[in-house]
């Protein structure tokens, strides 16, 4: 893997991580608005979303030639 591709992958992964964090914050806020305590709201948001690392990897594979069969 070239350095350029490595740097691009790193940028891409950081961007997805920010998007996931924003989603979890929004979902947590929605749960709190529905009456959940903050700690339960955050846990429910994480359960609903699933494993962030796995989701990032699946999205990466879908959007690269590595994911094409």
3D architecture notes:
The chain is mostly helical and 69 residues long. It has one domain. It is 78% helix and 0% strand. Helix 1 packs across helix 2 and helix 1 (3-33) packs across helix 3. The model has no long low-confidence stretch (mean pLDDT 87).
SSE layout:
Blueprint (H helix, E strand, L loop, with lengths): L2 H31 L4 H12 L2 H11 L7
Note the gap between the termini.
19 Å
Total strands: 0
Shape: elongated
Q: Flag low-confidence runs.
A: none
Task: List descriptors.
single chain; 69 residues; mainly alpha
What is this entry, summarized?
This protein has 69 residues and is an all-alpha fold. The protein has helices at residues 3-33, 38-49, 52-62. The protein is 78% helix and 0% strand.
